[in-house]
């Protein structure tokens, strides 16, 4: 049986040289790319997680990386991102480094507190960035979405 291949845009801790890149160990790097649409990219929660919020037209054209992933890796990413409960995986257009437009999946935060739109917006993310908000990894990253949901939905 032939493996399916999917193109995924990553903008946060899954990028190369970032804390969760190991989830993409079997993925193939395609190119650096930029969202064709603007989205708010914020750093929030006690874990300093980068969230791209599903609010097109606000924020910046986020810079990130495109990877080719197989079924198993996509399933692993869906679990990590708690799709479709926390993040939703959607197809959007991205401008590759060579100017080509590529359609790819991106994980966007659909439900969020309005205050999150008052946080600083970023064009690109690095855990070691000048913002000083280093990503806080936990022993079980798969448990994080439960805690994060509580934070994002509490009033």
Strand ordering within the main sheet: 1-5-2-6-7
The fraction of residues assigned to DSSP E strands is 25-35%
Sheet having the most strands? 5 strands, antiparallel
- Secondary structure tally: strands: 7
Radius of gyration: 15 Å
N-to-C SSE string, H for helix and E for strand:
EEEEEHEEH
Number of helices in the DSSP assignment: 2
Structural class: alpha+beta
Spatial separation of the terminal alpha carbons: 48 Å
Average of pLDDT: 90
Shape: globular
Uncertain segments are: none
**Proportion in helices:** 10-25%
Plain-language structure description:
The chain has a five-stranded antiparallel sheet with strand order 1-5-2-6-7. Strands 3-4 form a two-stranded antiparallel sheet. The chain is built from two helices and seven strands, in the order E-E-E-E-E-H-E-E-H. Helices cover 13% and strands 32% of the residues. It starts with a strand and ends with a helix. The protein is an alpha+beta fold and 155 residues long. A hairpin with a 4-residue loop joins strand 3 and strand 4.
How do the helices and strands line up, and which of them pair or pack?
Blueprint: E1 5-10, E2 28-35, E3 41-44, E4 49-52, E5 63-70, H1 71-80, E6 87-96, E7 101-109, H2 144-153
Antiparallel strand pairs: 1-5, 2-5, 2-6, 3-4, 6-7
In brief, what are we looking at here?
The chain has 155 residues and is an alpha+beta fold. The chain has helices at residues 71-80, 144-153, and strands at residues 5-10, 28-35, 41-44, 49-52, 63-70, 87-96, 101-109.
């Amino acid at each position: 049986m032939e493996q399916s291949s999917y193109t995924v845009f990553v903008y946060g801790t899954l990028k190369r040289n970032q804390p969760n890149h190991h989830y993409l160990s079997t993925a193939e790097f395609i190119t650096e790319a930029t969202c064709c649409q603007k989205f708010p990219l914020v750093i929030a929660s006690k874990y300093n997680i980068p969230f791209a919020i599903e609010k097109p037209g606000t924020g910046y054209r986020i810079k990130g990386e495109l990877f080719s992933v197989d079924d198993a890796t996509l399933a692993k990413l869906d679990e990590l991102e708690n799709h479709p409960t926390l993040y939703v995986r959607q197809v959007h257009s991205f401008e590759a480094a060579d100017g080509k437009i590529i359609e790819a999946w991106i994980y966007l935060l659909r439900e969020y507190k309005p205050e999150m739109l008052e946080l600083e917006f970023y064009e690109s993310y690095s855990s070691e960035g000048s913002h000083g908000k280093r990503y806080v990894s936990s022993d079980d990253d798969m448990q994080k979405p439960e805690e994060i949901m509580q934070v994002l939905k509490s009033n």
